[in-house]
Amino acid sequence: PKGSVPVAKKVKQWYTLDNAGVLYAALQRREYSAIYRFSAVMTEKVDAAALQRAIDRLRPRFPGFFSCIKMGLFWYYLEPNDAPGPFVRPDVADPCRPMDFKEEHGWLVRFFVYDRRISIEVFHALSDGGGAIVFFRTLLAEYLRQLGHTIPVGPGICDLSEPPPREEMEDAYARYVGPRKAYIRSSAKAYPNVGTPEPYYTFHVTMGFVPVDALKAKAKSYGVSITEYLSAVLLWVLIEKQRRENPRRTLPVALAVPINLRAYFPSRTLRNFISTVRPSIDPRWGEYTFEEILQQVRHYMQLHIHRQELRAEFTGNVRFQTHPLLKKVPIVLKNPAMIFSYWAAGVRPYTMTYTNPGPFRVPREMERHIHHMEVILGQATQPKPNCATISYGNIMEITFAGTQKETDTERDFFRFLVQQGLSVKIESNRV
């Protein structure tokens, strides 16, 4: 009407993807699942309605996890998702299914319940494991509050009454990027450990449960950490597997081990902020004893996990994505280039990924409500397994997950642990 004041159109806030998020958005497709899962197996059966109330309470505090991906002319970006949900659903036999940005109302995080198990699945463009653990721990705390328990706000559990700090949405890669020439070039080709592909979507998950105190004592007897010990076991069984296959050309065996950069570059970001190191053994140099592999891994970790080299590892990717000419290239042309770059630098040099986010710690008031934790990495670009571990209390959970028919890698790995005198309980979704 004449004389009325025009109403300003509400503009949605949007966020640029961080360096790793850009890559995961470009890579996501039917043959690859940039998804990971954390699960908490509770001591009592889960109340799905209480969990849904907890999820709804988290939405204002964690805008990054409740976003959707949009494709612009030059880059993907995130914006708040106003769709209903996300809703708790019954768990599935084959977890970590690839994301379709146009399905499920665009949600990039999923919530599942089965009996005593609460699971979340997160699209890697939103956050790395370090950020997702803060989100999941806060969710579990609020879930217990919804059941009437008193759970304090503390380290690693966010206060839902406060607005989200800007620091949690920081692109820490951009903040800490190094000089233009300070980056590391990709490594040589590694033994791929590829098996027979299963039909879509058949995702095999095998979990082993090992007492933490026994595992820690075994690692200590060799003078190494648990991560170094398990990395060496993986390298040992992969070297033996390649030897049995008697290939025409023997290749190095290498692991991709993600490192949480927050320990080296102060940041409160809940987005991606990891780099990767590459412990490897080259069988062409001769035979190695297990003790020699352990020492190689230990010295490699000590030599290469430091602030300068970790920064150099991600600097090249950041400089590539922020190049003035690349910014003007449409995203439909950039995607194939990023896919090829990932194959050359993120697939070809590695036999498998091994990630260990460390112990899952909660306030004393929460401890009695959680029995153990689980973690799963999603489908790799090739039919091969990846490995992930997480501990809670005295239970270390070790997962092998992939789309290959063969079970050689996980079978040999757990058999080796048993031969080392460790007790292992196995669970699997294989039929």
Question: Keyphrases for this structure?
Answer:
alpha+beta, 431 residues, five-stranded mixed beta sheet, eight-stranded mixed beta sheet
Plain-language structure description:
The N terminus is likely disordered. Strand 6 and strand 7 form a beta hairpin. The radius of gyration is 22 Å and the shape is globular. It is built from 12 helices and 16 strands. Strands 8, 9, 10, 11, 12, 14, 15 and 16 form an 8-stranded mixed beta sheet that branches. A 5-stranded mixed beta sheet has the order 5-6-7-2-13, covered by helices on one side. It is an alpha+beta fold.
Question: TL;DR?
Answer:
The protein is α+β, with helices and mostly antiparallel strands and about 425 residues long. The protein has helices at about 20-25, 50-60, 130-145, 170-175, 210-220, 225-245, 290-305, 305-320, 325, 330-345, 365, 410-420, and strands at about 15, 35-40, 65-70, 75-80, 90, 110-115, 115-125, 205-210, 255-260, 275, 280, 350-355, 370-375, 385-390, 395-400, 425-430.
